[in-house]
Design a protein that fits this description.
The structure is a single chain. With 721 residues, the protein is α/β, with parallel strands linked by helices. The chain has 5 domains: 97 residues, 3-Layer(aba) Sandwich (GIY-YIG endonuclease); 66 residues, no CATH class; 178 residues, Rossmann fold (3-Layer(aba) Sandwich), CATH 3.40.50.300; 181 residues, P-loop containing nucleotide triphosphate hydrolases (Rossmann fold, 3-Layer(aba) Sandwich), CATH 3.40.50.300; 89 residues, Alpha-Beta Plaits. It is built from 20 helices and 30 strands. The strands form 7 sheets. It has a 7-stranded parallel beta sheet, sandwiched between helices. A 6-stranded parallel beta sheet has the order 15-25-24-16-23-22, with helices on both faces. Helix 16 packs parallel to helix 17. The longest helix has 17 residues.
């Protein structure tokens, strides 16, 4: 039995009423003083425990079909690879309402149909003036089964009448089964030669496993390639799983998919759904009622009985990596699942991750290139603005303000990009040097001026903005630096009359807020967009001709070896929002290092050249993808406790005698988070299999330490080291 508890292994229970058909089914079991939901993994005649020590299951939850064997095998793989308890791994993939020990009362669509007796009685038995009853009878006579919602729409007393007829034996209620309608497509746009070649290549590999890396410049029509490849899969009556990195990309894509395949059942799975919606969508996918599932990283564990293809859009995005609990990469798990189920997988990006790009260069993945924009539009002109001797007005150079004014006069849209939300990142006292710091994290509190609040963007702590410096009493404390809120105000002052729309996590918290904003932009109700990385990828704004990037230099010099890759990708992605329609695009990047190779590569639109340079640096330094890593992370109330635990862990690693490199424990880059002190220990090896063999033995010994004052977790293939 698999249980959602932080303990390794599985648990034995007495269950004589279960059969082999119940493997994968949810059951209710006693666990200590609690009652939990469990997943049946195996039926055995004998247990290692004495018969008297075994407890009976409390009952069977038949509100969902059993989890399929392939999905259970996928979870077993993830538990082993990421060194996580198998029970928690399985339950991670379930919707919240299906993790509980209570049955889930799914609201499924029902319909009404006439019985043999009803066909004899209706409509003859009805009074002539019973208009509603005759409407109901006419609807039921002409169709085999009519949805209850349609019948209720005929009149307010329809439900009462149907129940009376049911009691008389004239009608009966039936669960509506979803039969996939014949595939219909709206107008399919013509493809350019590169798109056509990509569709044909993917279409030729639908009968087996293969990884396709679709590297297409921004605006090259990657989504259209997905759609036409997906159409070939749907023609075979198969299902398609589409993964996107962030929730804000979901409405745009689902709308486009529905427009292309009208009437085709599809669902989305993401954190914006409530628990009931998510469980219902998940169950619809499991039953095979839907043909397309579009979701964020957790959707990779959705059971799909007729899976025919997986698509991972923006595969480079770090959001596909889970950072707590089961620390899996949805992209990598999707590749394993595609191999497991013998289906193709398409990884799409304008800026592929260096790992994926390396696999393509070495032949593990098949590379498909889209080098021209789908509508024959030119890539935007990219220009760096040297800010070393410029006066910046609230972070804006004269060149940026002038360029924005020109677009306003032309009636074109602009995007001002700064990857920092809030009003200002620091509240500072010029007299004594005090700055507002989070008491629970190694970070400063961010000023949110409109709400008059200081907020920590890491732990969520809040406090009122003080009227004076807490240390010296100086009342002239000032916000330093720019965030999206401050930039919005500055632009309103510099460009009076401009319609400015701020797009960040704060402005899109309300459900459907992003959809409303997206519609406003397309209706032309905004002149200037101010946004964070939420706007950097996947969005198509035809009237947007100018992109201005502020504060890009903050990502240039970092201790993180992935910083250059992330900055380059972000700049290429956000630059690609300009000039996607008929308008010529321009990108302005404010920087104090205009001659830096990274900015020069962005200006040349030279992903391949810069990626090869970064790969050469990685190979020389011994970083992924040329090495395989795992990080043991520990947190405690005090830093010495976490470091001492990691020191013991390092000793255990060395005692195992495995040929892995074990580094010294160090404090995490953000040492304190949410009141806990954090440290980490890096291990690595040039062979993935040997590293995995070592990790399995090491983790078993770590669990035997019985450390109660330190919480630890292993992060395999970490993004942050």
């Amino acid at each position: 039995m698999a249980l959602d508890v932080p303990l390794a292994g599985v648990f034995d229970y007495l269950a004589p009423e279960l059969t082999e058909a119940d493997i994968g089914r949810r059951v209710v079991v006693p666990f200590g003083r609690r009652t939990l939901a469990g997943i049946v993994l195996e039926l055995v005649a004998q247990s290692e425990l004495a018969a008297g020590a075994l407890k009976r299951i409390g009952g069977v939850l038949d509100d969902m079909p059993p989890l399929p064997a392939q999905l259970l095998q996928l979870c077993h793989f993830c538990a082993g690879y990421y060194q996580h308890p198998v029970g928690q791994t399985i339950f991670t993939g379930l919707p919240v309402l299906l993790r509980r020990s209570q049955p889930f009362a799914e609201k499924r669509p029902y319909g009404w149909c006439l019985t043999a007796a009803g066909r004899l009685q209706l409509p003859a038995a009805l009074p002539q003036r019973a208009r509603l009853q005759r409407l109901l009878a006419d609807a039921l006579i002409t169709r085999a089964c009519v949805p209850e919602s349609e019948l209720q729409a005929l009149g307010g007393s329809a439900r009462k009448t149907l129940r009376q007829w049911g009691a008389a034996g004239w009608v009966e209620q039936q669960l509506l089964t979803t039969q996939p309608p014949p595939l219909q497509q709206s107008a399919v746009p013509p493809l350019n030669p590169q798109q056509q070649a990509a569709v044909e290549a993917i279409g030729g590999g639908l009968d087996g496993f293969g990884v396709w890396l679709l590297q297409g410049i921004t605006g090259s029509g990657k989504t259209e390639v997905y759609l036409q490849a997906i159409a070939a899969v749907l023609q075979r009556q198969r299902q398609v799983l589409v993964l996107v990195p962030e929730i804000n990309l979901t409405p745009q894509l689902i709308e486009r998919f529905r427009a292309r395949f009208p009437g085709l059942p599809m669902v989305s799975l993401h954190s914006g759904l409530n628990d009931t919606e998510r469980a219902s969508h998940w169950l619809s996918a499991q039953r095979g009622d839907v043909r397309i599932v579009l979701g964020t990283r957790l959707a990779v564990f959705t059971p799909l009985p007729a899976l025919g293809m997986i698509v991972v859009d923006e595969e480079h995005d770090g959001s596909f990596k889970q950072q707590d609990g089961l620390r899996y990469s949805a992209r990598d798990v999707a590749i394993y699942r595609a191999r497991q189920q013998h289906v193709p997988i398409v990884l799409g990006s304008a800026t592929p991750s260096l790992e994926s790009y390396h696999h393509a260069l070495t032949g593990r993945y098949r590379l498909l290139r889209l080098d021209v924009r789908a509508n024959a539009a030119a890539l935007p002109t990219v220009r760096s603005i040297d800010t070393r001797r410029l006066y910046l007005q609230d972070g804006l150079s004269p060149q940026v303000i002038a360029a924005l004014q020109q677009r306003l006069e032309k009636g074109e849209q602009s995007l001002v990009f700064i990857n920092r939300r809030g009003y200002a990142p620091v509240l500072f006292c010029g007299d004594c040097g005090w700055s507002a710091a989070c008491q629970r994290c190694s970070a400063r509190m961010v000023v949110h001026l409109r709400e008059r609040r200081l907020r920590c963007h890491h732990c969520g702590a809040e406090q009122v903005i003080p009227v004076a410096c807490p240390d010296c009493g100086n009342q002239d404390i000032k916000p330093l630096g720019q965030g999206t809120q401050r930039l919005e105000t500055a632009l309103a002052d510099a460009l009076p009359g401009a319609r400015i729309l701020r797009i960040d996590r704060d402005s899109t918290r309300r459900k459907d807020a992003w959809s409303d904003i997206y519609a406003k932009v397309h209706r032309g109700e905004a002149d200037i967009l101010v946004g964070t990385q939420m706007l950097a990828k996947g969005h198509d704004f035809p009237a947007l001709s100018l992109v201005c990037v502020l504060n890009a230099d903050s990502g240039l010099f970092s201790s993180d070896y992935r910083a250059a890759e992330r900055l380059f990708s972000m700049l290429v992605q956000v630059s690609g929002r300009a000039g996607r329609g008929r308008l010529a695009g321009e990108v302005l990047i404010q920087t104090q290092f205009p001659d830096h190779p990274l900015y020069l590569a962005v200006a040349r639109h030279d992903f391949d050249g810069y990626a090869r340079t970064l790969l050469a640096e990685r190979e020389y330094a011994g970083f992924p993808p040329y090495i395989y890593q795992a990080v043991l992370r520990a947190e405690a109330s005090e830093l010495p406790m976490a470091l001492a635990f990691l020191q013991r862990a390092a000793g255990l690693a060395l005692d195992l005698g495995a040929p892995v490199s074990v580094f010294d424990p160090v404090a995490a880059s953000m040492q304190r988070l949410a009141g806990k002190e954090r440290a980490q220990l890096l291990v690595q090896h040039g062979n993935r299999a040997q590293l995995q063999a070592f990790l399995g033995c090491w983790v078993e010994q770590l669990r035997g330490l019985g450390e109660r004052n330190v919480r630890w977790a292993l992060d395999v293939d970490p993004l942050d080291v």
